[in-house]
From TrEMBL:
Record flagged with keyword Hydrolase: yes
Record-stated family: Belongs to the glycosyl hydrolase 3 family.
Biological process per Gene Ontology, one example term: carbohydrate metabolic process
Protein name, UniProt field: Fibronectin type III-like domain-contianing protein
Keyword Hydrolase in record: yes
InterPro entries for the chain: Cellulose_deg_GH3, Fn3-like, Ig-like_fold
This protein's UniProt keywords: Hydrolase
Organism ancestry: Bacteria, Bacillati, Actinomycetota, Actinomycetes, Micromonosporales
Biological source species: Micromonospora profundi
Ranges of residues in domain Fibronectin type III-like: 67-136
GO molecular function, one term: hydrolase activity
Protein backbone atom coordinates (compact mmCIF):
# COMPACT_ATOMS: atom_id res chain seq x y z
CA UNK A 1 0.00 0.00 0.00
CA UNK A 2 1.46 3.35 -1.00
CA UNK A 3 0.77 6.69 0.56
CA UNK A 4 0.24 9.78 -1.55
CA UNK A 5 1.49 13.11 -0.20
CA UNK A 6 -1.53 15.49 -0.24
CA UNK A 7 0.65 18.61 0.05
CA UNK A 8 -0.05 20.97 -2.87
CA UNK A 9 2.81 21.89 -5.19
CA UNK A 10 2.21 25.59 -4.41
CA UNK A 11 0.35 27.31 -1.56
CA UNK A 12 -2.93 29.15 -2.15
CA UNK A 13 -2.32 32.54 -3.75
CA UNK A 14 1.15 31.63 -5.07
CA UNK A 15 2.27 33.54 -8.14
CA UNK A 16 5.36 34.43 -10.12
CA UNK A 17 6.58 37.76 -11.43
CA UNK A 18 9.25 39.19 -13.71
CA UNK A 19 10.12 41.79 -11.09
CA UNK A 20 10.69 41.95 -7.33
CA UNK A 21 8.81 43.68 -4.54
CA UNK A 22 9.73 44.85 -1.06
CA UNK A 23 7.13 45.07 1.72
CA UNK A 24 7.74 47.39 4.67
CA UNK A 25 6.14 49.26 7.56
CA UNK A 26 3.40 46.69 8.21
CA UNK A 27 1.20 47.85 11.08
CA UNK A 28 -2.18 47.34 12.70
CA UNK A 29 -4.10 50.25 14.16
CA UNK A 30 -6.93 49.90 16.65
CA UNK A 31 -10.02 52.13 16.94
CA UNK A 32 -8.30 54.52 19.35
CA UNK A 33 -5.38 54.95 16.95
CA UNK A 34 -2.99 52.75 18.93
CA UNK A 35 -0.44 51.08 16.66
CA UNK A 36 1.03 47.59 16.73
CA UNK A 37 4.16 47.46 18.87
CA UNK A 38 5.09 43.81 19.36
CA UNK A 39 3.36 40.43 19.88
CA UNK A 40 3.43 40.83 23.67
CA UNK A 41 1.47 44.11 23.39
CA UNK A 42 -1.27 43.46 20.79
CA UNK A 43 -3.57 46.15 19.41
CA UNK A 44 -7.04 46.04 20.97
CA UNK A 45 -9.95 45.43 18.61
CA UNK A 46 -13.53 45.70 19.98
CA UNK A 47 -15.78 42.73 19.11
CA UNK A 48 -18.12 45.27 17.47
CA UNK A 49 -15.39 47.44 15.91
CA UNK A 50 -12.95 47.60 13.06
CA UNK A 51 -9.18 47.16 12.78
CA UNK A 52 -6.98 48.84 10.20
CA UNK A 53 -3.93 47.11 8.69
CA UNK A 54 -1.38 48.90 6.51
CA UNK A 55 1.70 47.92 4.51
CA UNK A 56 3.90 49.69 1.97
CA UNK A 57 4.77 47.77 -1.20
CA UNK A 58 7.61 48.89 -3.51
CA UNK A 59 8.62 47.53 -6.91
CA UNK A 60 12.38 47.03 -6.50
CA UNK A 61 12.88 45.43 -9.92
CA UNK A 62 13.54 46.87 -13.37
CA UNK A 63 10.15 45.91 -14.89
CA UNK A 64 6.54 46.90 -14.29
CA UNK A 65 4.64 44.37 -12.26
CA UNK A 66 1.63 43.65 -10.08
CA UNK A 67 1.91 42.37 -6.51
CA UNK A 68 -1.10 40.77 -4.85
CA UNK A 69 -1.22 41.71 -1.17
CA UNK A 70 -3.18 39.08 0.73
CA UNK A 71 -4.62 39.44 4.24
CA UNK A 72 -5.22 36.29 6.29
CA UNK A 73 -6.93 35.75 9.64
CA UNK A 74 -5.43 33.33 12.18
CA UNK A 75 -7.51 32.55 15.30
CA UNK A 76 -5.46 30.25 17.54
CA UNK A 77 -7.79 30.07 20.57
CA UNK A 78 -11.39 29.84 19.30
CA UNK A 79 -13.87 27.61 21.18
CA UNK A 80 -14.30 25.47 18.06
CA UNK A 81 -11.81 24.26 15.48
CA UNK A 82 -11.06 26.98 12.94
CA UNK A 83 -9.00 27.03 9.75
CA UNK A 84 -5.33 27.72 10.46
CA UNK A 85 -5.52 30.73 8.13
CA UNK A 86 -8.40 32.22 6.21
CA UNK A 87 -8.18 34.79 3.41
CA UNK A 88 -10.13 37.88 4.52
CA UNK A 89 -8.91 40.47 2.01
CA UNK A 90 -6.62 41.11 -0.93
CA UNK A 91 -5.48 43.89 -3.26
CA UNK A 92 -3.84 43.82 -6.69
CA UNK A 93 -1.17 46.54 -6.70
CA UNK A 94 0.26 47.45 -10.13
CA UNK A 95 3.58 49.28 -9.84
CA UNK A 96 6.16 50.70 -12.22
CA UNK A 97 9.86 50.16 -11.38
CA UNK A 98 10.77 52.14 -8.23
CA UNK A 99 7.14 53.02 -7.49
CA UNK A 100 5.49 52.31 -4.15
CA UNK A 101 1.99 52.21 -2.71
CA UNK A 102 0.44 52.09 0.74
CA UNK A 103 -2.19 49.36 1.00
CA UNK A 104 -4.76 49.76 3.79
CA UNK A 105 -7.32 47.16 4.86
CA UNK A 106 -10.27 48.03 7.13
CA UNK A 107 -11.39 44.78 8.75
CA UNK A 108 -14.75 44.60 10.57
CA UNK A 109 -14.74 42.34 13.64
CA UNK A 110 -17.64 40.41 12.06
CA UNK A 111 -15.04 38.88 9.69
CA UNK A 112 -13.77 36.86 12.68
CA UNK A 113 -17.23 35.41 13.41
CA UNK A 114 -17.87 31.66 13.43
CA UNK A 115 -20.47 29.19 14.62
CA UNK A 116 -19.77 28.55 18.31
CA UNK A 117 -20.55 25.51 20.45
CA UNK A 118 -24.08 26.82 21.07
CA UNK A 119 -24.83 26.80 17.33
CA UNK A 120 -24.97 30.62 17.20
CA UNK A 121 -22.71 32.74 14.98
CA UNK A 122 -20.48 34.77 17.29
CA UNK A 123 -17.53 37.14 17.52
CA UNK A 124 -15.44 35.80 20.39
CA UNK A 125 -13.01 37.95 22.39
CA UNK A 126 -9.41 36.80 22.50
CA UNK A 127 -6.12 36.76 20.64
CA UNK A 128 -6.06 36.77 16.83
CA UNK A 129 -3.49 37.52 14.14
CA UNK A 130 -3.90 39.35 10.88
CA UNK A 131 -1.21 38.12 8.51
CA UNK A 132 -0.03 39.94 5.40
CA UNK A 133 1.39 37.61 2.80
CA UNK A 134 2.29 36.95 -0.79
CA UNK A 135 0.45 33.62 -0.46
CA UNK A 136 -1.00 31.44 2.29
CA UNK A 137 2.46 29.92 2.67
CA UNK A 138 4.55 33.10 2.59
CA UNK A 139 3.71 35.46 5.45
CA UNK A 140 5.48 38.81 5.30
CA UNK A 141 4.10 40.20 8.58
CA UNK A 142 1.99 38.72 11.41
CA UNK A 143 0.21 41.40 13.45
CA UNK A 144 -1.14 40.50 16.89
CA UNK A 145 -4.55 41.85 17.91
CA UNK A 146 -6.85 41.16 20.86
CA UNK A 147 -10.60 41.18 20.35
CA UNK A 148 -12.05 42.85 23.46
CA UNK A 149 -15.50 42.97 24.99
CA UNK A 150 -18.10 40.30 25.62
CA UNK A 151 -18.94 37.50 23.19
CA UNK A 152 -21.27 39.03 20.59
CA UNK A 153 -23.85 37.20 18.52
CA UNK A 154 -24.06 38.33 14.89
CA UNK A 155 -26.97 37.91 12.54
CA UNK A 156 -27.68 37.89 8.84
CA UNK A 157 -26.76 41.58 8.66
CA UNK A 158 -23.13 40.94 9.67
CA UNK A 159 -20.42 42.78 7.74
CA UNK A 160 -18.15 40.20 6.11
CA UNK A 161 -16.27 42.31 3.56
CA UNK A 162 -12.88 43.84 4.23
CA UNK A 163 -12.46 47.16 2.44
CA UNK A 164 -9.14 48.06 0.86
CA UNK A 165 -7.52 51.30 -0.31
CA UNK A 166 -4.40 51.66 -2.43
CA UNK A 167 -2.58 54.98 -2.27
CA UNK A 168 0.24 55.32 -4.80
CA UNK A 169 3.27 57.14 -3.43
CA UNK A 170 5.72 59.31 -5.34
CA UNK A 171 8.07 57.16 -7.40
CA UNK A 172 11.72 56.98 -6.43
CA UNK A 173 14.22 56.91 -9.34
CA UNK A 174 15.27 53.32 -9.98
CA UNK A 175 18.97 52.46 -10.02
CA UNK A 176 19.95 49.29 -11.84
Amino acid sequence: MSSIDPTPAYPFGHGLSYTSFDWSDASAVGPAGEAYADPTDPVTWPVDGEARVRVTVRNTGSRSGTEVVQLYLHDPVAQTTRPVTRLVGYARVPLEPGAAADVTFDVPADVTSFTGRSGRRIVEPGAVELRLGRSSGETVAALALRLTGVERQVGHDRELLTSVRIEHLLAVPHSA
